[in-house]
Amino acid sequence: MPLPSSVALYGLALAFGFVTGTTLPISEVNKRQERCVASTQTQEELASLLSKKATILGPTSVDWADVTERYMAQVQPTVCLSVRPGTEDDVAEIVRFANRLDVPFYTVSRGHALTESVGRFRGIEIDLRDLRAFEVNPNNVTAFFQGGAYSHEVIDGLWDQGFVTGTGGCECVSVIGPALGGGHGLQQGRHGLTMDMLVNLNVVLANGTAVQVNETSHPDLWWAMRGAGHNFGIVTSFESKIWPEDKSKTYLVKTYQFAGRSLEAVIDRVNEFQGLGTLDPSWLASFGLYIMNTTLSKTEATINWAFVFSGSPEEGHAVLKPFDDLGPLSVDVVNVPYRVVNEYVGGGMEGRLCEGNKTHVIGTANLQTYNKTSMRAIYDLYNERIRQHPRLGDTRVLVEGYSVEGVLSHRSEDSAYALRDEHILTYFDTRFDSMDDPLIPFATEWRDHTVALWYGGQPERRPTTYVNYAAGYESLEARYGHETWRLEKLRKLKRQYDPDNKFAWYNPIFPPA
Ligand SMILES: Cc1cc2nc3c(=O)[nH]c(=O)nc-3n(C[C@H](O)[C@H](O)[C@H](O)COP(=O)(O)OP(=O)(O)OC[C@H]3O[C@@H](n4cnc5c(N)ncnc54)[C@H](O)[C@@H]3O)c2cc1C
Ligand SMILES: *[C@@H]1O[C@H](CO)[C@@H](O)[C@H](O)[C@H]1NC(C)=O
Ligand SMILES: *[C@@H]1O[C@H](CO)[C@@H](O)[C@H](O)[C@H]1NC(C)=O
Ligand SMILES: *[C@@H]1O[C@H](CO)[C@@H](O)[C@H](O)[C@H]1NC(C)=O
Ligand SMILES: *[C@@H]1O[C@H](CO)[C@@H](O)[C@H](O)[C@H]1NC(C)=O
Ligand SMILES: *[C@@H]1O[C@H](CO)[C@@H](O)[C@H](O)[C@H]1NC(C)=O
Ligand SMILES: *[C@@H]1O[C@H](CO)[C@@H](O)[C@H](O)[C@H]1NC(C)=O
Which residues form the signal peptide (predicted)? Predict the structure, then answer.
């Protein structure tokens, strides 16, 4: 993100990375990046190494803008060649080729990376969009997925066969991208994070060697790749658990809109409903949102709260009765199959959340419970900022309270994911059509203020950041864990498996020079 505060903090991280001795001087990195020439000769040489199904595209391709389009318009790596492997073996070939040329490489699955560090990449992109296959294994307990498989196709395809698995709530996002940093979603209350469902990863390492990574094969890498995976290898495919689900089953999605005056009562009831990580897993989600709905008010944000329930509608309505009693401005109720639940909470392929190529000012904080005082302060701040600039009424202040039983059923020390006791995810998002919008600094200050209020609501706890929601300015400790052994272990494994810091582009453990 082109945010002044981020840049300053990045500078610090950079200096720090340098001291550890695994990063290169700036001049050396620049030299490497300059070697990425999209010459015809380079393309032909690479093509001769790859399968017939592989595609190699350069900046002169007619559809280059579409090829390199991303969710975050302002997080644009400089791509000199975009290579689409046709087979998993191609991935290793591309890595070895890039290493021979001494040119950086970077993997893209669905292009939703949020963190600014991705924008620093310059080199050959490995685009997994043609490796999207997935298949239920004969045991019906696990399925095979390629690295480019994404939520929309996976949810639909598995549902057709009577199964569900872990994915995020937005259909445009890949399955493995989120999983490498955790993976939150509707199945986590019952079955854990998406990464908890993995049983095997087929990985290409920094030197182009393909290995299997699982509990018994490279167990140290198995530990690291579940939570900090983007820093360690390319997952060409993986095996992950699935669960049978009755195809005739429907889910209750109930969405309330409340006025600002109800805020304290809503927060009290949500806290009672969720408990401290004790929400029953039959509740798949409880999402809150502050947003302007100008049909209802031109000056005050509405407070939306959406609940997703897998039990009977009668039971669901009974539990939610305290919310009905608060006099909501509106209530929407649907009972729908699992495959379309995401659409009703905003994450469908055509939904607003999946819209790409916008500039976003984002910020996030993890919480355990909602602090009424800070939720009120954040709400009042929202209204004040909208009074100043009404056109920012599209800003989303989102809170996500999935159930967590499945997440807590795994031991924290068994993976690089350090945040199992964070029950609530938050997300601030103002979006712009242009990277040069004059209100970006204004939104950035608003973002910083909002995040500070979230953290201020739990003064006894250290700030932590879900790595996949990070903008990139947060501390490494917040992203990878405050316990000192965690970053020490990650750094040791980086030196072992990626001594030249080839995987340095996504919330890097060693920020590149
Ligand atoms: C609209 C939206 C909704 C989201 N919803 C959720 C959600 O519900 N739950 C959740 O947990 N997170 C969610 N996220 C955050 C999400 O986890 C990250 O944005 C994630 O990194 C996106 O993965 P991607 O494949 O789409 O993006 P990409 O940009 O393609 O990949 C993200 C990072 O992962 C690396 N990567 C991708 N594929 C591989 C691979 N096969 N092997 C190794 N590295 C790889 C890339 O190099 C990149 O650094 C959401 C993000 C957005 C923008
Ligand atoms: C992305 O948005 C920019 C700015 O609006 C626009 O110029 C560009 O064409 C868009 N790219 C694509 C692939 O639509
Ligand atoms: C797996 O599920 C399919 C239906 O989806 C069923 O036909 C098949 O018998 C099951 N196999 C096993 C081993 O249970
Ligand atoms: C783990 O990897 C080893 C070595 O490649 C392999 O033999 C084994 O089958 C893998 N385990 C799983 C669960 O895939
Ligand atoms: C705004 O409120 C109206 C009236 O309740 C509702 O129909 C509409 O869907 C709401 N808009 C959004 C974007 O939520
Ligand atoms: C709630 O937040 C306020 C600051 O907004 C803080 O002073 C207070 O201690 C917090 N309450 C709890 C229980 O942490
Ligand atoms: C690649 O790296 C791995 C992990 O460090 C190592 O075990 C392997 O021997 C290396 N392969 C080659 C060909 O150097």
Answer: 1-21
